[in-house]
Specification:
- There is one protein chain.
- By secondary structure, the chain is an alpha+beta fold.
- The chain has one domain (2-62): Roll (SH3 type barrels).
- The protein has one helix and five strands, in the order ββαβββ.
- The strands form two sheets. Strands 2-1-5 form a three-stranded antiparallel sheet, covered by helices on one side. Strands 3-4 form a two-stranded antiparallel ribbon.
- The protein starts with a strand and ends in an 11-residue tail after the last strand.
Length: 74
């Protein structure tokens, strides 16, 4: 699934592709933001870790990863 995180005072968003349960991920993100945790750590499907300051998060979009068709589709 794709996770898009908008950060305060940044024109770009952070996009992370990860596997796992969507409900579990949503609850982790919600707990971190509403619980006042200083950081949120997410790991992508390549094993890279991202540490994000929760006070800088503007929005989070969680959705299914889409495969892009290249060339002519029939």
């Amino acid at each position: 699934m794709d996770i898009k995180i908008g950060l305060a005072e940044s024109p770009r968003e952070l996009v992370i592709t990860t596997t796992g349960d969507q409900e579990d991920l949503l609850s982790r993100i919600t707990r971190a933001i509403e619980g006042g945790e200083p950081t949120l750590t997410l790991t992508d499907d390549r094993g890279r870790s991202f540490i994000i300051r929760t006070e800088r998060i503007s929005y989070v979009e969680v959705g299914n990863a889409t495969s892009h068709t290249v060339g002519f589709a029939s």
